[in-house]
Amino acid sequence: MTETINAAVAMINVLESWAIDHIYGIPGGSFNSTMDALYKERETINYIQVRHEEVGALAAAADAKLTGKIGVSFGSAGPGATHLINGLYDAQMDHVPVLALLGQVATNSMNYNAFQELNENPLFADVSVYNRTVMTPESLPHVVDEAIKAAYENNGVAVVTIPVDFGTKEIPKQDVSTAKNHRKGLIMPNYDDLKKAIPFIEAAEKPILYIGQGTRNAWSEIKAFSEHFSMPVISAVLGKGIVPDAYENFLGFAARVATKPANEALAETDLIVFVGSDFPFAAYFFNPDAKFIQVDLDSSKLGRRHKTDVAILGDAKESLKRLIELGDSRPADRWLKANQKNKENWLAWLRSFDDKSDTPLRVEPVFKEIRRIADEEAIFVTDVGNTTVHAIRLLDLNGKQKFTTSGWFATMGNGIPGGIAAQLSYPSQQVFTLSGDGAFAMVMQDIITQVKYKLPIINVVFSNESFGFIEAEQEDSEQEKFGVYLEGADFGKVGEALGAKGFTITEYSQLEPAFDAARKSNRPVVIDVKIRNTRPLPVEELVLDPDKFSESEINAFKEKYEVHGMPVLHQLLK
Q: Which intervals hold domain Thiamine pyrophosphate enzyme central (predicted)?
């Protein structure tokens, strides 16, 4: 007699074979057969009950960003499934593997306009690299195995819709998982392409190395390349932490969520070595006349962002290593030293506000406290908006710490879910979430999830009663500020009501005790800091260059943003 197994249990076994150890979602009638399988397999795979499916999908995306492993979330038919969309687009646009399991009504109810029935395949077509409805109970584990492979292969979202009656059926027991066969290989760069790049590097007077997520785990090669060719380094925001922030050749980040030294260098540069990135704002912040060498694993990205003089298809780490071998070293020159000085001035300016006791508070003293209590391997998840701007400027990552956010999709509300993912994936490490009051309010109900699973996450809320990032956009377009101001709330008390330890900070003297308590806490903490509603220095439109602006314009800009001791790169090069 053929041995049988419950179809849903067989599917969960496939997840286990791919080393998936937790899955996020909310049960529903159309997903109950899978819930029963999760109960039966509860010793090997943890079901994490979130309070909103969007939080589950965003957490799954953060899992993938932080670990490189596929994240998994689910939603029941209809509203449970549609709630996943935001998190799935976050995963798609930041190019990470996520599996979404969707409930569906029983097959004998499909196409009968049944309660909560939804034609899910068209809805998820755009967000996915794999999108199938299971057609037989026997194929359920096979389809999920195929979906996981597709998500890994394409660094994207795989969606599987499961009619609820299939999960109750017995099917022949067989090993369908291909996890043991899965391989990730290096694409080795072509020697001739590498050789073509060398004359451009030799001829450059103002070269820049721009890195993205594709250079993860290549810090030693980045450092060697930067010092061999005397090139300053700039990173995409999602690459924060790959290079230690204190590295003297590291200038920071470009565009609006950015640093002054990086934007100025990219406007001046005559060569950009663009490695492992798909930076979408190149047209606005890269010198259009600069020569361009691009290295990427995906040939569809080569030439997408800038006219490319040399395209190299291959692994970032190997490409950097081989370029060093092929090219002669360059001595540290005026270009490198001017950029190092520009960074030094920038950091001195940022740190000059660390001990300001203004009321409402500035953000710099808050970040000083975060840096003070942060462990050597802490993980930071920042929500989007002005909080991201402050985080990339004021967090001083050491190369061992991790950082993530919603990069390309830039969806508000990713902070709390990302913190849940970080603490589940790295239970022994310290985790911070950093959110504005607008973003925190979107997902604050899932502080309950942190409490339920005893996740000692430090959640910092920067409350300025404004969608500050959008307020600045309205200011730039010279329109009336409308729809951007928020009703305030005491989020420390909200945290307490949800079971966390809560602090509401209105004065400088309250910071140190609150952060000391947070560091020692064995349960979630919410620290709501009431900050002044001021715009971060707009490094995307600096009014500081005397060759471009009048003295009165420069003085007005300096007064507004409290700028001091920061000549522009153009002046430092003279």
A: 194-323
